[in-house]
Amino acid sequence: MSMAMDQRAPAHETAKAPQGERAPARIRARGLGKRYGALQVFRDIDFEVGEREIVAIVGPSGCGKTTLLRCINGLIPLDAGEIVANGERVTQPIAGMAMVFQHFGLFPWKTVTANVAYGLRMAGATRAEIAEKVPYFINLVGLAGFEHAYPYQMSGGMQQRCGLARALAIEPNVLLMDEPFAAVDAQTREILQFELLRIWSERPTAMVFVTHSIEEAVLMGHRVMVLKGRPSSIFEMVDIDLPFPRNRSTLLHPRFAKLREHVWRCVMDEAQAAERELHV
Ligand SMILES: Nc1ncnc2c1ncn2[C@@H]1O[C@H](COP(=O)(O)OP(=O)(O)O)[C@@H](O)[C@H]1O
Ligand SMILES: [Mg+2]
What is the pLDDT of residues 41-58, one digit of tens each? Predict the structure, then answer.
């Protein structure tokens, strides 16, 4: 098996495309470049994400992961290249894409129900649709019984379940996640990782999942994009050829350890180089 850079759309066990056909890409990114004033954040970024594919992104802090997600989401403009998502060139937020944020992004003055309904209302759903869908998605993320709770009454893990329900409720075909579990404790994080995999297998979407955890990237992703350099670009697109469904036993798979080690090496020689630079 090759862990070399691989830009092909992969065929996965989970892909339901007819035999012999490649799953169509949901996101095509070509030649992406972004700068903030004099700071060139990334350049020459090319990748595709299939319609039922999870691409996890890892890279050192400040390499532009959040910026890249915001560009995919159409929240900030690119300086070079283009992104086509759902067949549409992204120049502003487009239908069918949802984002889950690191710090949950919930309205503190709204209940779980109202927070989940908000995204649907913004997407133009009718009252009847909202009344039908909100309880379904609250139940899907395991928050049944907390419909009337406010964010401050819930743990970080429950707040992120609510953030996830809000994103899922619009039934996106592209889900963007920016370090969604970074603000919860280690045990909750592990629970939520497997919950997210379960939910994804029930409702597969294209997913771009940013994380600073190499282990999490290998566990979640069909592929792992390693960003590095200054400005950053794709150092390697690593195929994670572990079977789905992924679960706790995936963590014990000898192949899991090998892939984790490989991604770790990709990321760490950069981190070590950066550290050496600081000491020059
Ligand atoms: N709005 C902004 N204006 C200027 N610089 C920014 C802005 N947002 C991020 N940056 C800078 O761009 C770089 C990439 O940031 P970010 O995308 O947040 O990285 P990451 O998510 O990988 O940690 C960092 O050096 C950060 O300081
Ligand atoms: Mg970030």
Answer: 999 999 999 999 999 999
State in Å: Cα 57 to ligand 2 middle. 11
Alpha carbon distance 184, 143 (integer Å): 16
Cα of 242 vs centre of ligand 1, distance in Å, is: 32
Give SS3 for 137: helix
Domain containing 262 equals 1-8+23-94+208-280
Does some domain include residue 86? yes
Ligand 1: atom nearest CA of 67 is 17
Structure tokens at 219: 């566990």
Is residue 250 within 6 Å of ligand 1 at its C-beta?
no
The preferred substitution site among 40, 41, 101 for testing ligand 1, maximizing ligand atoms within 8 Å of CB, is 41
pLDDT class for 183, splitting at 50, 70, 90? confident
Q: Could you give the number of structural domains in the chain?
A: 1
> d(Cα 51, Cα 23) in Å, to the nearest integer?
6
Q: How far apart are the C-alpha atoms of 175 and 207, rounded to whole Å?
A: 5
